[in-house]
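quick one, 224 residues, struct below
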Amino acid sequence: MNVPRSPNTALPPGFERFRYIAVEGPIAVGKTTLARRLAERIGGSLLLEDFESNPFLPKFYRDMSRWAFATQMFFLFQRVGQAADLKQRDLFDHPTVSDFLLDKDPLFARLTLGDEEYQLYQQVFQHLAPQTSTPDLVIYLQAPADVLIDRVRRRGLDMERPVSSDYLYRLAALYADYFHSYVNSPLLIVNSENLNFADHPQDFEYLLEKIAGMRGQREFFSRG
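---
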């Protein structure tokens, strides 16, 4: 889902080098909320995953083994299409913030697909991935699995009601393992357990300061 950029908004100091920012993390960690806030602040376009358009997703949450492959392939082609479109844009004209990173797509595939389906998925992924752009910055939002479970339950989406705690535990662990060795882009790891970017403006301002001051390839941000 492409959302038009906010017009006539100047980039905050220090953000000139980040023309394409991807926000990532497991279910209910707050990716979309933060991506929206960032895009609004920097006057950028917003690139969002379009979960509602995937006709297989509600079926997947009810019966993962049966619908995993169809769900995964739909998302793969959707995400590649969005990311490929991004590659055609002039990012120097205005920045883009997305709430997904294509590189993480295989995490869900490995979690839900059988071995033969995963091998087929990997062949398609390896063929399509070179069509996409690499972010100038990845923000990885992390939170304990118990926090994610509580957030999923509290937001009460009908589609997510069948999601098991075990699935969320395994997904959170896969994300942690993946980003532990991630080197494709500068990475800011954010412990979001005690941060609320939607309702606490100061949390968001602290994060902006951290992004603007980044100097290394991998940095951390947390608040007690």
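Residues 21 and 116 are 34 Å apart (CA to CA).
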